[in-house]
Amino acid sequence: MSQLTGFRRWIAFVAVILGYFMALLDTTIVHVTLPEMTRHFHTTMDNMSWIVNGYNLVFAVFLVTASRIADQFGRKRLFLIGTALFIATSILCGLSSSVEAMVFFRVLQGLSAAIVVPVTIPLAANLFPKEKHGMVLGIWGAISSLAAASGPTLGGILTDSIGWEAIFFVNVPIGIAAIGLTIPLVRESMDASAGRRLDWLGMLTLSASLFFLTFGLINVSDWGWNSVKLIGSFAAFLVCLILFLAVERRTAEPMLPLWLLRIVPFNGAVLALMVLGAGMTATSYLMSYFLTGILGHSVLHAGVTISAMSLTSMVISAIAGGLSNKYGSRWFVAAGVAVLALSVYLDGSLTVNSTEWSVIWRLALSGVGIGLSIAPVMGASIRNVPEEKVGIASGITNMSRAIDSVLGVAILVSVLNGALNHYGADIAGKENQRSASNAVLSDEAKQVLLERAGRLEQRPSPVDATDAKNAEEQDAFVASFRHTFHVAGWLLLPGIPFALISDRRRGQRLASGSSTKNASQHQPQANAP
C-alpha cells in the first residue's frame, strides 16, 4: 500500500480517477456528435459508425493484454503511457480531415483507453488499506456513472456551442492534470510474481480470439445470425481460444494464470458483471431510441433524460461500495440485478403518451439496480483473488463487461428487428394491403427510428395522428419496443444466481502468498462460496 496519507492520498486518487473518467467519457460523448460529423465529412452513417466500432473493438481486444503488461512492468508506467497516448490521439481526432484518418486515430484512442482503464482499479486500491477498498470501488463506480451521464449532455453542448472537434479537445486538460498529479503522488506497483518474460504467443492468440468475437458481434446486424461471415468469425474465435488455452497450459509464465478461472467467486463476479453489462446496454441503448423515435425528443434531450439513471447510480454506488466491503457483496449484487431486471421490464409499459416523469422514475430505478451491483461486484472480483493478481483480474472483468455490452446490442437489435417485422405483418394483414408473402413492415418504416435518432435538432412527434398508416406503424414500433424491453428484463434474471456465488460471507478476502505458486495453493478454499 502507498505511504501517502490524508489530503495527498486523496489527490493521488483524483489523479487516477481523472484518467479513468477521461477514457470512459469518450465511449459516450461521441455518439451525440455522429450526425454532425457525418455532414462535415460528407459521408454516410454506416461509414461513421466505425468511429464508434473501431474504438470499442480495440478497447475490448487489448484490455487483458494491457493488464498483464502493466502487472509485469509497472501499472503507473502504463497508466502514464496510456494517458499520454490518449491525449495525443484526442488532438489528432479533432484535427482529422477525413473519415479514414478519424477512424485510424479512434482505433489508437481505443488502444490507449484499454491501457488506462484496467490499471485504475489496482492503482486506486494500492492507495488505501484493504478495509477501505469497498469505499474506493464505490467512488470508482460513481465516477463511471458520472462519465456515462455527462457524455451525451457535454457532447451536445460542446458541439452546439463550439463544434464537434471540441469533444476530443476536452480530453487534453483532463489528461494533462492526470499526468501532472500522478507523477509525483502515485507510487509504482506491479505483480512481483509475474516475471518479465512476455508471453507473445498467449497475447497473440487471446487478442485474435477476442478480435474475431467482437468483430462478429459488431457486424451481426448487417450480416445476420445465420450468415457464413458470422459463423466463420465465431469459428475463428473458438480456434484461437483453444490455441490460447493450450499455450497457457504449456508456458512457464502465462499471461493469464488459468487457475484464476477455477476460483468460483471470481467466476461468479465475472458472469454477473457480463449480465449487468447487457442490462445497462439494454436500458441506455433501447431507451435512447425510444425517446428519439417514439416520443420525438432531440438526442440532447434524450441524453439529459437518460442521465437520471446514471446520476442515481452514482449516488447508490458510492453507498453500496463501502457497505459491501463490510457485509459482503453477493446480496447487494443479487438485489441490484433483480431491481435492474424489473426496471427494464417496466420500460416495456411506456407508450407514445408517456410523460417525462414516467420515463425518469423508471430510469432512476434502473440506476438503483446498477448502483447496488456494479461497485460491489467489482469489489468481489478483486477481493477473491490474491492481492498481486488484482491487475489481471481487473483486465478480465473489464473485458467481459465490454464484450457483453457489444453482445447485448447485437441480441437486442435482432429482437427489435424481429418484433418490427412481426407486428408490421399483423398491421399489414389487417389492412389487407399486401400479400401474405410480403406482409412485413417496410424497410423505410424500420429506418424511421434510426433517422430520427440521428438528428440533433428538436422534431415534432414522429407520427401524425391524422395519418392512419403512420399511426399503425407507430403502434408497431411501440409494441416492438415493449416486446424487446420484456425480453431484456427476462434475460437479466440469470445474473441473480451468478451474483449469489460472487463473494464469500462478510467480504472475507482470499489469502494470498507472495508468488503465483503460493497463491494457487489457495484454490481448494476458493471453490467454496
From TrEMBL:
Q: An example Gene Ontology cellular component term from the record? A: plasma membrane
Sorted keywords for this record are: Cell membrane, Membrane, Transmembrane, Transmembrane helix, Transport
The entry lists its GO molecular-function terms as: transmembrane transporter activity
Pfam families from the entry?
MFS_1 (PF07690)
Chain segments carrying region Disordered: 509-529
What sections of the protein cross the membrane?
Answer: 12-30, 50-66, 78-97, 103-128, 135-154, 166-186, 198-218, 230-247, 259-287, 299-319, 331-348, 360-382, 402-420, 483-501
**Composition-biased stretches (Polar residues):** 511-529
Q: Could you tell me the membrane topology recorded for this protein?
A: Multi-pass membrane protein
Species, as recorded: Paenibacillus flagellatus
Q: Entry's Gene3D superfamilies?
A: MFS general substrate transporter like domains, Multidrug resistance protein D
Coiled-coil residue windows: none
Q: Which family does it belong to?
A: Belongs to the major facilitator superfamily. EmrB family.
Q: Which residues form the Major facilitator superfamily (MFS) profile domain?
A: 12-507
Where it mainly occurs, coarsely classed, is: membrane
Which CDD domains would you find in this protein's record?
MFS_MMR_MDR_like
Q: Where, per UniProt, does this protein localize?
A: Cell membrane
Q: What is this protein called?
A: MFS transporter
